[in-house]
Amino acid sequence: MTRILIIDDHPLFREAMQTAIRTAYADADIIEAASLGEASKQLTANPKFDLVLLDLNIPDTKGFFGLMDLRARYPRLPLVVVSGHEDARIIRDVMSYGALGFIPKSTRKPDLVNAIRQVLSGEIYLPESYSEPAEAEHDAERAEVMEKITSLTPQQMRVLKMLHDGLLNKQIAYELQVGETTVKAHVSEILRKFKVYSRTQVVIELGKLDADDMLDLDKGFTKAAEK
């Protein structure tokens, strides 16, 4: 029997995924999890799943961290990202972190059924519209992110680091020994400078940086913490 784990916090989308899966595999054993924590419990109890379908944007993880965590703990687990973020750069990064495919949430049901069949047969699935981002474009994106980071104050740099690490506002307030209102003000300013609307988008922006960039960034975070 085919066993599939759906990790998504939206009940209606989980229901849509169930319908698509059962169209392809009527007798499939489908387990649902609304968070990474719930998924971890299921995988601890029985890690033998034929496929895991993971949404990037779930409550208890940020950006690519859920994907990286599952890939590190269960390296042989067949894992496909299903996301509403369809940017080519995100798809490229998802694949570089070890996913076996990427299915946009906008995929029509017949294509979704075919995608699931394709991945379960051992093939990699990517949307037909996907094309690898050009290196020159990637370099420009990295430079743009670094420029945004250098516009931050030392305290905003510290908050950015904690956002990158997945801390909540109250945890950041505790670490910095300031009020949550102050933290919210810093987060709002970071979002404004990055020209995004959510923490997840900030983390995705940081995902555009290379390993060397992150080393430079860590040095900047350390200096900011000393001020």
Strand-helix topology:
Layout: E1 3-7, H1 11-24, E2 29-33, H2 36-45, E3 51-54, H3 65-73, E4 79-83, H4 88-96, E5 102-104, H5 109-120, H6 135-150, H7 154-164, H8 169-176, H9 180-194, H10 199-206, H11 211-226
Parallel strand pairs: 1-2, 1-3, 3-4, 4-5
Can you put this structure into words, describing what you see?
- A five-stranded parallel beta sheet has the order 2-1-3-4-5, sandwiched between helices.
- It is of the alpha/beta class and 227 residues long.
- The mean pLDDT is 85.
- The protein has helices at 11-24, 36-45, 65-73, 88-96, 109-120, 135-150, 154-164, 169-176, 180-194, 199-206, 211-226, and strands at 3-7, 29-33, 51-54, 79-83, 102-104.
Offer a concise description of the structure.
The chain has 227 residues and is of the alpha/beta class. The chain has helices spanning 11-24, 36-45, 65-73, 88-96, 109-120, 135-150, 154-164, 169-176, 180-194, 199-206, 211-226, and strands spanning 3-7, 29-33, 51-54, 79-83, 102-104.
Overview features:
227 residues, alpha/beta, Rossmann fold, Arc Repressor Mutant, subunit A, 5-stranded parallel β-sheet, 10% strand
